[in-house]
Batch of 2 targets.
Target 1
Amino acid sequence: MIRWFKKKEEPEYPEFWKSYAAKFSDKPVQQLEDIRFVVLDTETTGFDFRKDRMLCIGAIGLKNNVIDVADSFEIYIKQERFNPETVAIHGIIRNEKVTMQTEADALTKFLEYIEDAVIVAHHAGFDLGMINHGLKRMHLPNLKNSVLDTMPLYRSTLINSNFVDKTRGYSLDEVAEKLVISTKDRHTAAGDAMITAIAFLKILSKLKKSGATTLKDLLKIR
Amino acid sequence: MRNTIAERIADFLKRYPPFDLLKTSQLSEIAAEVKVIYVEKGKVIFEESQKGHDQFYVVHKGAIDIQRNNNGKIENLDKCDEGDIFGLRPLFAKESYMITSIAAEESILYAIPISIFKPMVLDNQRMGEFLIESFASNTQTPFSKEHHDMLYTGREEAFESTAQLYELQPAHFVKNLVSCTREETVKDVAIKMSQNKVGSVIVIENECPVGIITDKDLRLTIAVGKYPIDVTVDKVMSKPVICYPKGITIAQAQITMMKHNISHICITKDGTPNSKAVGIVSEHDIIVSQGNNPSVLMKAIKRSRKTKDLKNIRSRIMMLLNGYIQHNIPMTHVSKIMFELNDATIKRVIERSILKMDRQPPVKFAWMSLGSQGRKEQLLTTDQDNAIVFQDVKPEELEEVREYFLTLAKKVTKRLNAIGFEYCPADMMASNTRWCLSLKEWKEQFKNWITEAGDDEILLSSIFFDYDISYGDVRLTNELSDTIFKLTNNHKLFVNTLANTALRNPSPLGFFRQFLVESNGEHKDFFDLKKRAIMPITDAARVLILQYQVKNINNTAERFEKLAELEPQNKELYLSCSYASKALLKFRTKQGILHNDSGRFIELDTLTKEEKVKLKRCFKSIHDVQELLKIRFKITAFL
């Protein structure tokens, strides 16, 4: 009768989504040492969430200050739409000799890999937007993981000085330069993910000194 | 699945032994299981008598100190650099570690699982030998075969202490020989010597050394007119060459040099003049390796070819500083020497960076060191603060010229960082567009700062009263100083605001004469020596000296001495301030050496009673000079 109050019926999701969703508990782990972080980066055909598509997802797992190469993820996605302009940047040529997956397969594998890890990315909004739009095309809801963005995290480590503009953004290149990280592998998804991961560890050690020890503390930083 | 990260790790490992001995497939297998570990400076990776890890380590970035506790005394056995391996014990034996490894600087390590690696070693004899050698010594000069059976038996006398008996260590020799043939003319050889900045050239025939030409030979033959300058070298060279095989000890080298009255020894393959020349040991290098002589260090800086060399020299400079402090050498002397050494380092880095650019600087420029280095008070390596001023150019060329200097500045700051001068946290560096300006722009900038004297602007311009030109054309910086002085003259408001900022950090003692400690942040309950004591006294000196328009005295202690001369009525106060500034600097340096940091934050509990009293006496001078500022510049009590 009063249909508005009735809870909207959950659509029936596929098995892989259900097992992904089941990984999340009501009480997420808070101590940073115990959390599995997954640092990721996506390469895309452009910046339009609706029109553009992901070319590649690169990700690497990290726990208790140790990056585990065995826990990495790298997947290339078949394109229906091809934008020659982006090829130069990313060096991923269409049908290059790596195994390619459809977007749906890639994302299914990604969900299997990521589980309930906390996602870390530089300018995370963009990568998350891309992934979530991909999930939407599969008629799935958004990712359930907590997300940390290394950009504001880095900014919060800068000293409080009137000479530092606290509102401006910092590109991954700038952050890497300031934290003295080699940027040899820029513009491959996995390479960027690795740079971001090292940046994240360096930032984390700085933040820990100023008292951030739980996930909650980090999520507060904007 | 393709794994870019593992590929990169494999690429890195491949460049270093023993991984260069592995097959590509084995390397990929290892790389895919590597764990990448980030460690902060001072973090312990494993400790003596701790159970062995199931992995060993490769340094990817940074440096790791290997230490051993010898009856309560910590001994540094070795320093592992990029590509070095350590923590090998668990690979050989199920025992606990016998050494401690600790991060000498912020580092990134690759941890390699032993379960995967060990089977590969057992299959590969050469690799096993290499590992045994590096395990046995962890130095550049592996021990002999004593440790041969270890991989399989797991017994050994680990780490004979070699570090103490300096003279018995093998002499380090230069591997890239500068050589010539008999037929070359003396002139060409002399040119070769100055290009390579060496004092000697080996004359080679069929790869074997047949003679040597040194600065001394040139002096004794050509310079006195015995031969014309176009004579062939075999006329003037010294022969035969004294040769030794590699591994000659420092003591042996020194005795040989004394005996034959020579300054160079040639290292050949079998130690006779009839085999291939592989290197040269010079008296100079031996002295440099002993390390504590400023003039030798200075020469080493000027000859350095790599940032890594400068970094090594840097650590020797620190040893020198440590020695000075321990022997109570007067601070004025110490800071002068340290300033010169730092200055030479910066100059050398800039010189080398210009060579790395695709062309010479388009116009004249000057590199200014600001802050503590500008005041000649930088003893420990702290942050780098610097700026560039370049000659005025046509407006349409301005951006292109700036682009050049920004690129140059990036190279310089990056190298300085690698040497140990950390980046300025407020980004006050020449690589920032705001600090890389033409002369005209700088003048404009100062005019804005001084006439619109807000607190920030004052602070910014005050930094520039303490600059020192490190490199380039001194006329540019002189013109800049003149402009600043002209602007500040007759600008009462500016000087008053400057005095005001000098008081922004009140006297470091609380009402009950207790130390004021930090109330929050990373250094909670520590005493901030820089903010509470060094900055107030530096600021006070600056504003007082500015009244008299005294140029070119930047050092705080010297400024107070000058003031004592100018105002005899306040002589006592100023001299006590001069003393205090030196004492504080020494204090900071001592603390810095003790804790291997910038010495800025002090844990009060670790101070002795005497030190506390000394500090408090310095604070009394700070308090008095602040009172004087308040009266002189009529700054009211509410500040």
Target 2
Amino acid sequence: MSFKIERVPAPVWMRPLFIVLAVFITFLLVSTLVLAAGASPITAFYELLIDPLTRTGARADILMLATPILFTGIAVAIAFVAGYYNVGAEGQLYAGAILAAWVGVQAEGMQPYVAIPLMLAAGFLAGMVWALVPALLKAYLSVDEVVTTLLLNSVMLFFVSALLNGPWRDPVSNWPQSPTIATSAQFPVIIPRSRVHFGAIMAVIIALATWWMLSRTRFGLELRAIGKNKDAAKFLGIPVKRRLIAAALISGGIAGLAGVSEVGGIHYYLIGTLSPGFGYTGIIVATLGALTIPGVFISALFLSLINRGSISASRELDVPVYLSDVIQAVLLLVTLATLLLTQYRIRRER
Amino acid sequence: MESLILLIGATLRIATPILFGALGETVIERAGILNLGIEGTLLLSSFIGFVTAQAADSLWIGLAAAILTGIILNLLMGFLVVTLGLNQHVCGLGITLFATGFALFAFRLIYGGVSTPPALDESFQPLNAFTGTAFAPLFSQHWLTYVSLLFVPLLSWLLFRTSFGLRLRSVGEAPDAADTAGINVYRMRYTALIIGGALMGLGGAFLSLAQLGAFTHGIINGRGWVAIAIVIFGNWKPWRVLAGALLFSGVQALQLRLQAEGVPLPYELLLALPYLLTIVAIAIVGRNASYPAALLKPYRREG
């Protein structure tokens, strides 16, 4: 009797187990850093993973933290499903934030049910506009979208800085931040005594709509076909270029909504540090979620738990708060590696 | 004339870390791997080089540590994308996120929440040549700048005039054919990653051990992404990569000059200009860009 490794997909029911395995390996690896910081890994992981769940305030914080990365995670997933590697969600987020802040400032005297939809529409549009050029270059000139979207992130940060140090500097506070948006444009808080705001509801609506689009419509099927095999998709008569552009624009628009949500629900003005890299975290969220919407949903919540937990861990144990950044990156790489295992299975031979 | 010499001098200084990074990336991409880990690799090399130099009280040991860091991170990239054959975009970004997070974590652990960036007591000083002549500012460069420039002809020769270079490029163009011809594709790709990683390490070290003599969180500030763009702009050829690096740095130097002279321009827009120019250049070159044919494609040996 011997064992043989075959290149046959593992049974579907086993796949979630690989994610659990990845989480386990990640925490094993990260333990070394916790030890280096002079803390016990067990206590640290309690602070990271359990403690936030035991307190009401911290539970609400997790929802608040999950909101922007749910938007960017969905945005990235849509593009990646179609094989369009949009890594520009960070820039598209700021594009959305800029226009939403502008609309929000103009919204003085408007009713909330007018002002907030206007902001959302403006932010979506701005995200689309910022995603347009890389999409066109990709579709018509075969220019690698990874490089162009990445560079436009840097351009956007310069642009935001120029805006806030120049024409848009708040005349009242004189800080490099935009004027505050009108009260009617500020998102309502949905859980009393917390900072969970209307953006969380929007994120869930977008998640449901995207799930429906990707799994229940012809358009979604075509995107997935393009992502699997572009040439075959073209052969089947799918207008590949137009679909890719559409995927890129929707992706950019949803990333833009993340910016709207942070301006309208958290800060109430535009600042240069609006996003600590939500666009890049979106790539992790989408990958951990295996580019599926339910997966994106769970991983956004899980990463937010770690983010919230790292704040407790740094307060209680003096472990630098950047621990959560390391965990997220290691988790990404380990998950990719363990997902590879799902393509093999061990068979017993007699 | 004098300001022109100053400008060229500044251009060379600004170009150094970008040139190291872009040359390293060129070698790696020639072997068929796009390494988006470059941004994080530059940062962590810069940081490890700095910490080691401080701890060992030796710039040379710091430099060696930076090079080693660059190599290790690229070996990790190799394990993920060469051995395991995973998606290069996501793994590269993952390495950048990991290296960045790790550097910030370790920085906080070692230095606590300091408000002023820690600095070396003594850093590599610029060499002074032609002092007293008008050309002095042009030649007041760090020795690492000259090293980076020397790597241009060296790599051009290595890639295009040696059988090693032919083999390296062949695994980036047609790995199947290369394998048939008896080249070990995996080993060759790892070799390219080691060479590229060492160059990235030098780029990171230049900033913390020579130009600044200090370390800050924003020390790399997108230079890795610029290097990626310059490799495409330079059509994967060392001399053209040099041209791209000088063009980018020239605009940067000009912007600093104008800012120093108080020309009322929103400096951020000038800073963004090279990025936009690069995108335009890529779009124009795009059609004729000779991407290594097997770039992004993992190699799997059948059987």
